[in-house]
Amino acid sequence: MIQFNFQSIPDLAGQRLILGFDGQTLNAELKHLITEYRTGGIILFRPNIDSADQLRRLCMDARKYALDQGLPDLFVAVDQEGGQVARLRNPFTEFPGNPHMRTLEDARQFARITASELSDMGINMNMAPVMDVAPPDVDSIMKDRVFTGDADRVSQLGTTVIQGLQEGGIMAVAKHFPGIGRTVKDSHFFLPELDAELSDLKQTDLVPFDAAKKAQVSGIMLSHILYPRLDPHWQASLSKRIAYDLLRTDMGYQGLVMTDDLDMKAISHDMDTCIYRIMTAQIDMALVCHAGPNIAEARDAAMRYLEKDRELYESGRICVRRILAAKETFLV
Question: PROSITE patterns per the record (predicted)?
Answer without folding.
Answer: GLYCOSYL_HYDROL_F3
